[in-house]
Amino acid sequence: MKNFYRIVLFSLLAALAGCGSDNTPVATKTATLTFTNVSTSRLTVPINGIQVVAKLPPGVIIPTDPANPSKIAASALTAGSAVTSSLAANEILIFGSYSASISKVRLIIADNSASQKGFRSGDYLTLSCSIPLVLPLTVSSFTDLNGSFPNTATDKVFKAGGFDVATHSDVDLTNQLTRSLRVVIQ
Predict the structure, then answer these.
(1) How does residue 2 score in pLDDT terms, banded at 50, 70 and 90?
(2) Is the pLDDT of residue 158 over 90?
(3) Residue 91: phi, psi to the nearest 5?
(4) Element (H, E) at 143
(5) C-alpha neighbours within 13 Å on the C-beta side of residue 49
(6) Domain at 25-185: CATH code
(7) pLDDT at residue 150, rounded to an integer
(8) Any alpha helices (H) in 68-118, and if so which ranges?
(9) What percent of the chain stands above pLDDT 90?
(10) For residue 97, how many other CB atoms are within 10 A of its CB?
(11) Which pLDDT tens digit goes with each residue over 8-66?
């Protein structure tokens, strides 16, 4: 009988030793967020840069730079077809920051070419992230948080600009573009 209790006690201790964080990877699915804009009229100049802020549902996993956890990993950001059809890869600047405490990303894509040739409206940026399988998130979990990206007095959620090569001046294109978010969860 003593051996029985020892075996039960040992088994219980062995089971408890496995509790806690064991760094086991969490099973996830992928969410791809595609940021798009459409010009509401003929643009006077090409787009040279866009900044967008988007809210994410709590629990979404954004790949970040290990050295700087607020910087989104370059592998998670991709230039969209509207940008890549006009600019070579070395002419595109993409940057993203992530604030986990408020579940918000700030993304910037810009023309980094010497000639400032710009890009057209359309899909301009894609962000890839992960969703733990235990979270019941859907496409509307993302789109309902972001609506049509309205600008507010305190937070410029969307800003777009171009460069007029004739006058060598910046042109604000923000109000000439309608923006949207497309989400695919796999």
Answers:
(1) very low
(2) no
(3) -105, 5
(4) helix 139-146
(5) 18
(6) 2.60.40
(7) 52
(8) 81-84
(9) 53
(10) 16
(11) 333 333 333 333 334 556 788 999 999 999 987 889 899 999 999 998 999 999 999 99
Q: Give the tokens for residue 46.
A: 């090409």
In three-state secondary structure terms, 75 is helix
| Alpha-carbon span 167 to 31, nearest angstrom | 42
The residues, any chain, with a CB within 8 Å of residue 47's CB and separated by 6 or more, are 37, 111, 118, 119, 120, 121, 124, 160, 161, 162, 173, 177
Rounded to whole angstroms, how far apart are CA atoms 21 and 131?
19
H or E segment and range at residue 2: helix 2-17
pTM of the model: 0.80
pLDDT at 166 over 50: yes
Domain boundaries, the chain: 25-185
**How do residues 81-110 score in pLDDT, each as one tens digit?**
999 999 999 999 999 999 988 889 999 999
Q: Please, which residues bridge with residue 182 across strands?
A: 34
Exposed, middle or buried by CB within 10 Å (0-12, 13-18, 19+), for 98? buried
- Burial class (CB within 10 angstroms; exposed 0-12, middle 13-18, buried 19+) of 83: buried
**Nearest residue to 183 via CA among 153, 141, 134, 122:** 141
